[in-house]
């Protein structure tokens, strides 16, 4: 007997119009994303790209906040 192995649908969102873009820019998600990117950038200033373990720990700190 074969069990039903139907996969659940993958939920996605996309920006397909100017109205979608305006709504995204006005959202808390947009603010959170911009804040995350800025903090992430600040966290690695002055760190060499060869210092991978330092970068990883800084990223982890931000993600755990």
Could you characterize the architecture of this molecule?
- The chain has 65 residues and is mostly helical.
- The model has no long low-confidence stretch (mean pLDDT 85).
- The chain has helices at residues 18-25, 28-43, 52-64.
- It has one domain (18-64).
- α2 (28-43) runs antiparallel to α3.
Supply the number of helical segments: 3
Q: What is the 3D form?
A: flat
Strand content: under 5%
Domains counted in the coordinates: how many?
1
The level of helicity is: 55-70%
Q: Any idea what the radius of gyration is?
A: 19 Å
The number of E-state strands comes to 0
The topology string of helices and strands comes to HHH
Mean of the pLDDT scores? 85
Low-confidence segments:
none
Q: Which structural category fits the helices and strands?
A: mainly alpha
Described by strand count, sense and barrel closure, the largest sheet is: none
Distance between the termini: 48 Å
């Amino acid at each position: 007997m074969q069990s039903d192995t139907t996969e659940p649908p993958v939920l996605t969102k996309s920006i397909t119009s100017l109205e979608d873009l305006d709504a995204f820019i006005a959202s808390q998600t947009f603010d959170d994303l911009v804040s995350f990117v800025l903090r992430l950038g600040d966290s690695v200033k002055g760190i060499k790209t060869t210092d991978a373990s330092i970068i990883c720990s800084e990223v982890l700190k931000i993600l755990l906040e």
